Amino acid sequence: MRKRDQERFRKILIQQRDALLGNAQRAMGGDLNLDPDDLPDEIDTASSDQGLAFIGRLRERERGLMNKIMGALKKIEDGVYGACESCGEDIGTKRLEARAVAELCIDCKAQQEKLERGMG
């Protein structure tokens, strides 16, 4: 991959990282603070628990994405960004534009999904 393309994807990845960090900071600002005394009945408590579980799942997904972003930035540093982890071929600029953290080329990803569907 050309240096110019790597720099463009580095900027995209940094923007995505910063957006996730901003979300995390807002969450730390009070999204998760609930006092059980403020909930008058069991239905409100259940609804609150469900909301907290949903927020927890979102945070877990964001954590996974953050790990992928950091891994992609490391690959750019190491000069191996854009290479498929399975076959070693170029992933392709169009695929990386759609998903900058992609680790597999489209053919290897399709094969992986086909195997996962067969096992699931």
Number of domains: 2
- The proportion of residues forming helix, as a percent range, comes to over 70%
Largest sheet: none
- By DSSP, the count of extended strands is 0
| Average pLDDT metric | 86
Distance between the amino and carboxyl termini: 35 Å
Element order, helices and strands? HHHH
Short précis:
The chain has 4 helices and no strands. The protein is mainly α and 120 residues long. Helix 1 (3-31) packs antiparallel against helix 2.
Tags for this entry?
4 helices, 120 residues, mainly alpha, 0% strand
List the helices and strands and how they pair.
Blueprint: H1 3-31, H2 42-78, H3 93-98, H4 106-119
Helix pairs in contact: 1-2
Account of the 3D structure:
With 120 residues, the protein is an all-alpha fold. It folds into 2 domains: 1-79; 82-120, no CATH class. The protein has 4 helices and no strands. The protein has helices spanning 3-31, 42-78, 93-98, 106-119. Helix 1 (3-31) packs antiparallel against helix 2 (42-78). The chain is flat. The mean pLDDT is 86.
